[in-house]
Design brief:
With about 300 residues, the chain is an alpha/beta fold. The chain is built from seven helices and nine strands. A nine-stranded mixed beta sheet has the order 1-2-4-3-5-6-7-8-9, with helices on both faces. Helix 6 (about 225-245) links the parallel strand 7 and strand 8 (about 245-250). Helix 4 (about 125-155) packs across helix 5. It starts with 14 loop residues before the first helix and ends in a 5-residue tail after the last strand. About 45% of the residues are buried.
């Protein structure tokens, strides 16, 4: 599996920069658990994007139905199997999980877009951050739209009464953008991802949970490097979003960025994901207690 290349600025980057990007950009190998079913789906041309193919890993629920659908979007340069343990756990809890990435072989008309999808995250300078931001905005819109098409193309037996979407790192931004584009997604969850795409400044009202190892960004922090500027911008956007439509922020004390993937295998992460979607999609009560080491910041929406 190919690891994405990371270019960093000279000097010592901040700890958030290191946590967010070091070791986390490439795909992470499947680390055990029941194997999913793999499907290739042809995405028709639409909205300026040529026809292309996605690979979907499907974990089917093992409990009596109905089974809400959860679409998973991976990290920047990551693969659909990077959170396989969590997907298998969610299937055991009654969800069908569809994890999406892009097929290696693509129609010729999608070649230039596929090359763009393989560009590494570059945070080495202010100019590089600007280019990466523009690239991330484009990717978030495309991948969010593909999430809706995947939902439409799943077999009838997997069509769900309710659907949610979640992702790790960049996949979290895709999840939030998908909720903005398609309100059939009834809830979205962002596992430690910066925001990209229109949804960063145009929030949708669905239930929203952010998970991070960092404290809630209650105030702007000084930006000491290009990546720090992304942290500062992201904090301001999060506060504006919560003020407009509400949301929940779960700080998992001391958890590093890779702790939100199979590489970290942190049971508290999976427990929070399951509880959030069980409440939002199945009507289950919110847990009376949270896992140890979790600090909450919740903001009710205007109607809350």
């Amino acid at each position: 599996m190919t690891l994405a290349v990371l270019r960093i600025a000279p000097g010592l980057p901040g700890k958030k920069f290191i946590r967010r990007v070091a070791l986390a950009l490439g795909g992470i190998a499947l680390l055990g658990g029941a194997g999913p079913v793999t499907r290739s789906l042809a995405i028709p041309a639409r909205d300026g994007a040529p026809a292309h193919e996605v690979r979907v890993l499907l974990w089917q629920a093992t409990t009596p139905g109905p089974h809400p659908l959860l679409v998973y979007q991976p990290s920047w340069g990551g693969r659909a199997d990077e959170n396989s343990r969590m997907a298998a756990m969610l299937a055991q809890a009654g969800f069908t999980v569809a994890a999406v990435d892009y097929a290696t072989e693509q129609p010729s008309g999608f070649a230039s877009q596929m090359q763009r999808m393989q560009v590494a995250l570059d945070l080495s300078s202010d100019a590089a951050v600007a280019r990466t931001t523009a690239e991330g905005d484009w990717r978030a819109v495309l991948m969010a739209s593909d999430s809706s098409v995947v939902m439409d193309l799943l077999p009838a037996a997997l069509q769900a009464p309710a659907a949610g979407i979640f992702g790790w790192s960049f996949g979290g931004a895709v999840a939030v953008e998908a909720c903005r584009q398609d309100h059939r997604f009834k809830a979205c969850l962002n596992m430690d991802g910066w925001m990209f795409g229109p949804a960063a400044d145009d929030p949708s009202p669905q239930p929203y949970l952010v998970m991070s190892g960092d404290p809630y960004p209650a105030t702007d922090e000084p930006a000491h490097d290009p990546a720090g500027e992304l942290d500062r911008r992201d904090g301001a956007r999060l506060r504006a979003r919560f003020a407009a439509v509400g949301g929940s922020y779960a700080q998992l004390d001391g958890l590093q960025h890779t702790g939100f993937s199979d590489a970290g295998n942190n049971p508290a992460v999976g427990a929070l994901v399951e509880a959030f979607f069980a409440h939002a999609l199945m009507g289950a009560p919110e847990p009376a207690e949270s896992p140890a080491g979790v600090t909450w910041h919740r903001v009710a929406g205007p109607a809350g």
